[in-house]
Amino acid sequence: QVQLQESGPGLVTPSQTLSLTCTVSGGSITTAYYAWGWIRQPPGKGLEWMGVITYSGNTYYSPSLKSRTSISRDTSKNQFSLQLTSVTPEDTAVYYCAAPSVPLATVQAMCVIQGYDYWGQGTQVTVSS
């Protein structure tokens, strides 16, 4: 079974860049047709899909976050990472990395929260000076 673990700073200063890494075990991030996503939940709000990197390294982002979001990977470490630039207090949230339990056949399936079955425990990130 795939396991995911988020890591990164819990406090980020406004206007700076939020950087998180997800370490994957029990599966390879290069396995064909799998995708690896980032999802967040601000306090008192619902889950928000942020973006995804596919097994081949293609990336897709939420239109509302696309200008500030970058997802990359290190295949040698079986990790993928999130960078969110120019953060504000509105970016305060619990950030999750997630993966599907079956290969996803379409980009549309990769871009919805319902496609993801395996989740990390989540990491709280607070944006504050």
Structural overview:
This protein is mainly beta and 129 residues long. Helix content is 3%, strand content 45%. Strands 2, 4, 5, 6, 9, 10 and 11 form a 7-stranded mixed β-sheet that branches. A hairpin with a 4-residue loop joins β5 and β6.
Protein topology:
Elements: E1 3-7, E2 11-12, E3 18-25, E4 35-41, E5 48-54, E6 59-61, E7 69-74, E8 79-84, E9 93-99, H1 107-110, E10 118-119, E11 123-127
Parallel strand pairs: 2-11
Antiparallel strand pairs: 1-3, 3-8, 4-5, 4-9, 5-6, 7-8, 9-10, 9-11
Continuous helix count: 1
Distance between the termini: 39 Å
Order of helices and strands: EEEEEEEEEHEE
Overall residue-averaged pLDDT value: 96
Number of strands: 11
Structural class: mainly beta
Shape: globular
Low-confidence stretches: none
The major beta sheet can be summarized as: 7 strands, mixed
Keywords:
129 residues; mainly beta; seven-stranded mixed β-sheet; 1 helix
Summary, kept brief:
The chain is mainly beta and 129 residues long. It contains one helix and eleven strands.
